Amino acid sequence: MTDHIISAKSLDLTFTTNDGPVHALRDVNLDIDKGEFVSFIGPSGCGKTTFLRCIAGLEQPTGGALTVNGMTPDEARRARAYGYVFQAAGLYPWRTIAGNIRLPLEIMGFSRAEQSERVQKTLDLVELSGFEKKFPWQLSGGMQQRASIARALAFDADILLMDEPFGALDEIVRDRLNEELLKLWNRTNKTIGFVTHSIPEAVYLSTKIVVMSPRPGRITDIIDSTLPRERPLEIRDSKEFIEIAHRVRDGLRAGHVDD
């Protein structure tokens, strides 16, 4: 069994289409350890979301090896090893916020008492206590996304996979949620895989930044962040932050040149 929470070795994924094969991922090698916050950044169509979906067992690689918690992604999915947060909050409009967060717990057969306890705990974690009886349409976009994160956290999986969860939000709300997500990560010590198009977001949030090239998706750089774990927003003006951002930008440019 591997020591890494997530491990990809020579991973390939080719989709078969009517127009011929589409090479989504090629020779992806990556290890993610417990408690790391890993961002995936690259242009549209570079395989960021595809790789996240492979980890989640939602796509099947066509070559190489991938393990999650020492299991195949499909085994890890059945073992409920991860929570998944999509780009859109995806809340059911006819369910209250508490009802939406409770849904995976109902499916998993938790007792009513434990459901209530876990719902309240995750509402507290994402600072939505007091909104449990509201419906999604009564909440702002940022609050809906926090409810979506709470739903992914409700069954307390070790891994949180997030596919550009703040991409549709305005910059002020996005900054606030970035701060809240870092606090949440610090409190829970989850292992987080996070897809983004934003260089500042990737640098601000991550312990490791994975830079990907245009299709076929390849890793052009893996950057271990030297920023401290405690990160006020003002850290984005620091020399260290700007240097990491430049390296990410250089990696993105190199991927385009290689292509």
Can you describe this structure?
The protein has helices at residues 48-55, 73-78, 97-108, 112-125, 141-153, 171-188, 199-205, 239-258, and strands at residues 6-17, 20-32, 37-41, 63-68, 82-85, 159-163, 191-196, 208-212, 219-224. With 259 residues, it is an alpha/beta fold. The protein has two domains: 6-81 and 159-258, P-loop containing nucleotide triphosphate hydrolases (Rossmann fold); 91-156, no CATH class. The chain has a six-stranded mixed β-sheet, with helices on both faces. A three-stranded antiparallel β-sheet has the order 2-1-4. Helix 4 packs across helix 5. The longest helix has 20 residues, at 239-258. It is globular, with a radius of gyration of 18 Å.
What keyword list fits this structure?
2 domains, six-stranded mixed beta sheet, globular, alpha/beta, Rossmann fold, 259 residues, single chain
Strand content: 15-25%
Question: What is the fold named in CATH at topology level of the largest domain?
Answer: Rossmann fold
Average pLDDT for all residues: 90
Count of helical segments? 8
- Give unreliable regions as ranges: none
Shape: globular
The biggest sheet, with number of strands, parallel, antiparallel or mixed sense and barrel status, is: 6 strands, mixed
What is the helical fraction, as a range of percent?
25-40%
The radius of gyration over CA amounts to 18 Å
Strand arrangement within the widest β-sheet reads 5-6-7-3-8-9
> What gap, in angstroms, lies between the N and C termini?
36 Å
CATH 2nd-level architecture of the largest domain: 3-Layer(aba) Sandwich
Class based on secondary structure composition and strand pairing:
alpha/beta
Total individual domains:
2
N-to-C SSE string, H for helix and E for strand: EEEHEHEHHHEHEHEEH
The level-1 CATH class of the largest domain: Alpha Beta
